[in-house]
UniProtKB/TrEMBL annotation:
Source lineage: Bacteria, Bacillati, Actinomycetota, Actinomycetes, Kitasatosporales
UniProt keyword annotation of Cell cycle present: no
Gene3D superfamilies (UniProt xref): UbiA prenyltransferase (1.20.120.1780)
Name used for this protein in its record: UbiA family prenyltransferase
Pfam families in the record: UbiA
């Protein structure tokens, strides 16, 4: 059987440029986080692969949409790291790539069931709303909290009986998403303000935004340590202490170091989640 053609045929564009334009590091991190959640929840090999595929498609659509919407601002700011802004990827190719990934995301998300699909598609819709409008408002943090907070629901609602995830897991994911937003915009606050983008981190300023990012991500780690039923595991407190030290050491650093610190904490959270779920299957 021949492979289905893309819903939106892509104009010719370098594959490497499209990959750089999709925000590959955060896209890969979120996809990995979702896959780990699915494996820990017992979705099995096929279910975990399907979860990862749906989340990857959603993340690709969001990343390409972001760079396409920001094209004019990125050109004005002289962003040489943005393939669309430099002309390395045609604007039409960015649009087609975003819409194609979004079209693929819909059936992949709905495959585990309508409730799971609705949860994931609501998260993707929140991310698109950020790109199209909320990025420049005081509610810029909200789409991140909603999208990340719904990831556990996408995983668990695909299980037999369609259970909702425990509140501590939803809260931890939402705090991690909001913290990632604050950390991600830190290097670009001056350019954003010059371009008229006034999300909540830009309104707070770099110093206070860095502090908020660290507190949100630390809160996420604390929920993963303290939220599940039963006693705190022996590795819980050391990991929480290391998380705090890492955030303290990176939150005021220049460039993208704070965001990379958040990703490192997210990785530690994933390891903690795996360890907790191995011993507390009932927590799901």
């Amino acid at each position: 059987m021949p492979a289905p053609s893309p819903a939106f045929p892509l104009p010719t564009a370098p594959v490497g440029g499209l990959l750089r334009a999709c925000h590959p590091l955060p896209a890969a991190a979120v996809t990995l986080f979702a896959a780990v959640l699915a494996a820990a929840a017992g979705r099995g090999t096929a279910g975990t692969a399907l979860t990862a595929a749906a989340v990857a498609a959603g993340q690709l659509s969001v990343g390409w949409c972001n760079d396409r919407v920001d094209l004019t601002r990125d050109r004005a700011a002289g962003r040489r790291d943005k393939p669309l802004a430099t002309g390395g990827v045609p604007a039409a190719a960015g649009t087609a790539a975003a819409l194609t990934a979004l079209a693929l995301c819909v059936p992949l998300s709905l495959a585990p069931g309508p409730a799971a699909g609705a949860a994931h598609l609501a998260g993707v819709a929140a991310a698109w709303a950020y790109n199209l409008r909320l990025k420049a408002t005081a509610a810029s943090w909200l789409p991140y909290a909603v999208a990340f907070g719904l990831l556990p629901a996408f995983v668990t609602l695909g299980l037999p009986g369609a259970p909702w995830p425990p509140p501590w897991l939803t809260g931890a994911a939402a705090l991690l998403g909001a913290g990632a937003h604050f950390a991600n915009v830190l290097p670009d606050i001056a350019d954003d303000l010059a371009a008229g983008v006034r999300g909540l981190p830009q309104r707070l300023g770099a110093r206070r935004a860095a502090t908020v990012a660290a507190l949100l991500v630390l809160g996420s780690a604390a929920l993963l340590v303290l939220g599940p039923p039963g006693h705190v595991t022996p590795y819980g407190w050391p990991l929480l202490t290391l998380t705090g030290a890492l955030l303290l050491g990176t939150s005021r650093a220049p460039g993208r170091i704070p965001f990379l610190g958040v990703l490192a904490v997210a990785g530690a959270d994933v390891l903690l989640l795996l360890a907790r779920s191995a011993g507390h299957a009932a927590a799901w």
